[in-house]
Amino acid sequence: MDGYGNVLVIGSAGVGKSTLIEKVLGSSATQRSVRGHGRIAVYESLSIPFRVIDAGDIGGSCLARRAGSKAVKRWSKDNALDGNSDNDINVIWYCVEGKSRKLIRQQIADISRATSLWYSVPIIVVLTKSYSQLEREDNVQLVWDACSRRRRLRRNVRAVIPVVAETYQLSDTTFVSPEGIPQLIEATNEAMPEGIKAVGADIAAFTLKRRRAVARSIVAASTAAGIAVGAIPIPISDALILTPIETNEVNALATLYGIGKGSASKKLLTTVLEVGTVSTAARTAISALKAIPGLNIGASALNAVIAGSIVAGMGEGTIRIFERIYQGEHTIDDVEWAQKALESHLSREFVEKATGAIAKASGSEVSNVTGKEQRKALAKLLTKALLSGAMSAEDASGRKTK
Ligand SMILES: Nc1nc2c(ncn2[C@@H]2O[C@H](COP(=O)(O)OP(=O)(O)OP(=O)(O)O)[C@@H](O)[C@H]2O)c(=O)[nH]1
Ligand SMILES: [Mg+2]
Description:
By secondary structure, this protein is α/β, with parallel strands linked by helices. It folds into two domains: 5-198, Rossmann fold (3-Layer(aba) Sandwich), CATH 3.40.50.300; 202-390, no CATH class. The protein contains 16 helices and nine strands. It is elongated, with a radius of gyration of 23 Å. The chain binds guanosine-5'-triphosphate (GTP) and magnesium ion (MG). Residues 17-18 line the site of magnesium ion.
């Protein structure tokens, strides 16, 4: 591909470079094997206007740095020999683990050295694994402070972005949602030289796709949480038991689609939540699901699957609403429209799909296993049935085994 910008990813072993790249480029990314220098990997995706080059751990020891920069140089040269003109590094993602302040301080000290070869290339500092929401702001400030003391970094560091590339599970029912990927794509495009920059509309279309993938992983994690809560043997008389999970789900989706915390959006969010918890639509959906005849699964599995369905249906309906607001087709003041849209989603299409999924759940793949295994199988089945469109298994599962 010609006319492409190149992003070089630098960071110590295990900071999360591969995970980050995978989530930015999506499952359609192809990895090009790089001639003669196995340690660097080059990723391309048709739907993103830049190449991503994973140089491995070149921030750490002097030796690693030398080997790494040599490999990147060789790549540039080979690329030029192949007749490609776009072999310059245009932007650097410097990855630092955002989990501990001590680590951040240490790794920031290395930025200068690790990037010295690319003297005037813009740098985006990515705080990977930024699981603690409370610390994100302080950590970003910490990085800016550290960079402001060095002239080259002051000039080159363009953005500091806390990222959670994939869902981080805290317990069966709580998790940290992915965050920061769309911001990273936008900031990267912003930092590209003028001739390479993608036009606004292209980037918007691309981040919309990435947002959708992130949204679905939020809903998938919420659904799994709903299943875990539903499996606890207390009767679900109404959907109230799911309120904390749905609140978390809706808030995470709102953040993802840039729906703020002001009073206007508060009304929208409250309304959306009411539809999913106390509304007639939610109750009717639950009774409809409970009334499916001839199910061959135990009471606790049935409760679990109903709870999961409601959370998944809510999530899918909410994504549709937030996407349309994000695209400017509606505003956050269109509360009545949102309410109707979600109610109609929960009452027709959803019940139909969920009924199919639940009937399937009484089949062997779910009823042959118990406990955690069963909950996992249920989560897989529900996200597959209830989240529309082309959601890849990777997007749905959140955690990928390596
Ligand atoms: N839940 C979660 N796990 C993450 C995230 N980022 C990284 N990890 C985990 O951290 C570990 C290391 O991540 P990698 O992406 O392999 O790190 P890397 O920088 O490519 O590591 P090397 O290739 O060895 O240098 C893996 O087990 C990842 O699953 C994240 O955002 N969320
Ligand atoms: Mg890796």
